[in-house]
Amino acid sequence: MNATVLFAANFWEEFVQLFAGMGVAAGVCIVLGLVLCIIEIFQPGFGVFGGLGAILIIAGLVIRMLQGGTLLMLFIMIFLIIIILLAAFMIMVRSMKYGWLSRADFIQTGTAVDPVRSDATKDFSYLLDKTGKATTPLRPSGKATIEDQEYDVIAQGAFIAAGAKIKVIEIEGARIVVKEQK
User: Fold this and answer.
1) What sign results for the dihedral spanned by CA atoms 140, 146, 148, 149?
2) Which range is least confidently modeled, 44-48, 85-89, 102-106?
3) I want to staple 140 with a disulfide (CB 3.0 to 4.6 A). Which of 14, 75, 148, 155 is the partner?
4) Which pLDDT does position 29 carry in this prediction?
């Protein structure tokens, strides 16, 4: 027999022996550990489920090795566990895009804060249609004095010289847009 056939026969024998010789304690630890890790994948939190799952999987592997496992059996079990967890992760990713997770509160798509203006953005809406004077040249941004207060403004269109009269025509969040008043 050639080496490949011997390896395949030995591998299959080890694979069958892995599950045939596994005790109840090792099997329960591995299955429960996988379930807890999959719960952590689908509902991430503080890592309690994932941590307990990893501990149970390791305990199951150790128990199985103490029951007469070989190094090849250990590698087969680790490989199978990784495949199962990767499959669960891929299902979760796909479900986030197209499945029930995309409709669940798992991912928050909207917020209570106005997208134009957040709590940290000052409200300059009271300046709309007010007039003032350009303190610095506006090319297109600069400073202007409106109602005895200096503001950072943006000129609409062309350059506005310092000292020119301006009018606020648009407020967009913290952005104050002005145009020269003739």
Assistant:
1) negative
2) 102-106
3) 155
4) 93
pLDDT > 70? residue 120: no
Question: Is there a contact between 70 and 14 (Cβ–Cβ < 8 Å)?
Answer: yes
Closest of 152, 142, 145 to residue 131, by C-alpha = 145
Provide the β-strand partners of residue 170. Answer: 177
Assigned token pair, 21? 């010789």
The mean pLDDT of the chain is 82
CATH, domain range 125-180: 2.40.50.140
pLDDT digits (tens, 9 = 90+) for 51-100: 999 999 999 999 988 988 788 888 888 999 999 999 988 888 887 777 65
**Phi-psi category of residue 147: left, alpha or beta, with phi > 0 → left and psi -120 to 50 → alpha:** left
Per the listing, tokens 């011997």 go with: 6
Residues 78, 42: Cα–Cα separation, whole Å: 21
Structure tokens at 44: 């991430």
